[in-house]
Every structure is written in structure tokens, then in C-alpha cells.
């Protein structure tokens, strides 16, 4: 979905993205059912990954529980 489909959306930048960081993620509530995720470097009107609120909450829960954490010595892909 392109940003121009959600013109009045308020995007929030990740707190983990510092000032001047080039790798930034932004998230916005698009509706009662969907969340948008985008790269903050993308041009206005650029691509937006759209997922259900439940999918996003499941992802946040998995992230906080450490399911995506790498172990020492694990190769980066």
C-alpha cells in the first residue's frame, strides 16, 4: 500500500532509532483493524507494509519475549 492511500496518518518513529540514524522504522495505526509499517527513508507516497492489529501485537509480543534474539556466535544472515 502506498502512503498516498493514508494521507492523514500519523507516523511514529521507533524510539530505538536515534537522531540521524539511517535505519529507521515508522509505524502508524491505519484503522481499527490495520497497522502500517514503513521505512522512514522512503519517499512520501512510498511503500507501506500493512498488517492486522493482531498480527502486529503478536510480532511485538514475540520480539519482547526474545524469540528473535541471536545467541552468541550465531551467524548473521
Describe this structure in words.
By secondary structure, this protein is an alpha+beta fold. It has one helix at 53-65, and strands at residues 12-13, 25-29, 34-39, 49-52. The radius of gyration is 14 Å and the shape is globular.
Largest sheet: 4 strands, antiparallel
How many beta strands in the DSSP annotation? 4
State the secondary-structure class.
alpha+beta
Q: What's the oligomerization state?
A: single chain
Q: Could you estimate the helical fraction of the residues in percent?
A: 10-25%
Q: Nearest-angstrom radius of gyration?
A: 14 Å
* Secondary-structure element string: EEEEH
Number of helical elements: 1
Strand content: 15-25%
What low-confidence regions span 5 or more consecutive residues with pLDDT below 50? Answer: none
- Span between termini: 27 Å
Morphology: globular
Order of strands, main sheet, comes to: 1-2-3-4
Summarize model confidence as the mean pLDDT. Answer: 81
Brief rundown of the structure:
The chain is α+β, with helices and mostly antiparallel strands and 77 residues long.
What is this structure's SSE topology?
Elements: E1 12-13, E2 25-29, E3 34-39, E4 49-52, H1 53-65
Antiparallel strand pairs: 1-2, 2-3, 3-4
Keywords for this structure?
77 residues; alpha+beta; four-stranded antiparallel sheet; 1 helix; 17% helix
